[in-house]
Amino acid sequence: MRVILLTIRRLDLVNRWAAMRPSFGLRRAVAVMFVIFLVSDLVAAAIHLPALAGFGFAAGSAAAAGWTRQRDLIMVVTTPPVIYFGAVIFGDLVTMHLGHVPMSVGLIGASILLTLAASAPWLFGGLAGAIAIACVRGLPQCVRDLRAELLGRAVRDY
Length: 158
Description:
single chain; elongated
């Protein structure tokens, strides 16, 4: 085991792996989350497996928290529920249109509420996982920097 660790350190594989990982800005992270949320919601509706929409939320949140630049971590951790809500609304409207269901406010609202209720455990778990990943990547420092900015102090540059 020690030989493997020494080999990894000698070859500097950790820094090379970090350099290969893509780094998203905030806009790209939001777009990636929306696409993952929407696709998982549409597939879940097509195969009648509501847990898949929640799994898509957890996967999209974790991917965005893992690949976003450090300075954008606060927004990436706080916005997934809003983005998911928008993706569920859009996905339910598309699903109803493709199913030739006459649309009414009550029917759309019921569909959205049922989708959100079915994926609620995934929402809590996915958001907790995204926060954990962001904390490992430097979220506490981002919060300290935000607090310093709000108090008018100098902030370190990333």
